[in-house]
Amino acid sequence: MYEMKDEYLTGIKMIDDEHRKLFEIAEETYQLKNNEFIPDKYDNVKHLLHNLKEYTIKHFEDEEEYMESINYKRMFTQKVEHQEFRDKLDAYDIDGIDENTEYVIDDIIEFLTKWLIEHILENDMLIAE
Ligand SMILES: [Fe+2]
Ligand SMILES: [Fe+2]
User: Fold this and answer.
1) SS3 category, 23
2) Which ligand is nearest to the CA of 19?
3) What domains are there in the chain, each with its CATH number?
4) Running along the chain, 129 residues long, what does each successive block of 10 average in pLDDT?
5) Left if phi > 0, otherwise alpha if psi is -120 to 50, otherwise beta: which for 27?
6) How far apart are CA 68 and CA 4, in angstroms?
7) Burial of 52 (0-12, 13-18, 19+ CB in 10 A)
8) Rg of the chain (C-alpha set)
9) Ligand 2 center to residue 116 CA distance, Å?
10) Can you give the pTM of this predicted structure?
11) In angstroms, what is the span from residue 85 Cα to ligand 1's centroid?
12) If you measure from the C-alpha of residue 104 to the centroid of ligand 1, how many angstroms do you get, rounded to a whole number?
């Protein structure tokens, strides 16, 4: 379902490698959603959300550092969007997740789709211009 395609490549290896990893997390989430053999997905969701948070923070730091190094002119827009995503991830109460796991999984998928596809295509693709 989720995989890195050529149309998502920015041409900057570090950024593309990290985006690839994010696509993997999205795919993992999608597989978890459709896995009917796990009766209680709580631990999986917790683990996934933890990884997503850590990796997102790392990716934004790396991407922002790169943009700074080239004096990127659309840096401000990028930073604002990155912060919105960080805030959204911070709003998840990992320990508070319980019987509502399906809802959280759907929410993560929606978040990742918006971020992955839209942010990469609309914003990150411009970095290498
Ligand atoms: Fe970005
Ligand atoms: Fe990015």
Assistant:
1) helix
2) 2
3) 6-126 (1.20.120.50)
4) 92 97 94 91 89 94 98 96 91 76 87 86 93
5) alpha
6) 25
7) buried
8) 15
9) 8
10) 0.91
11) 10
12) 23
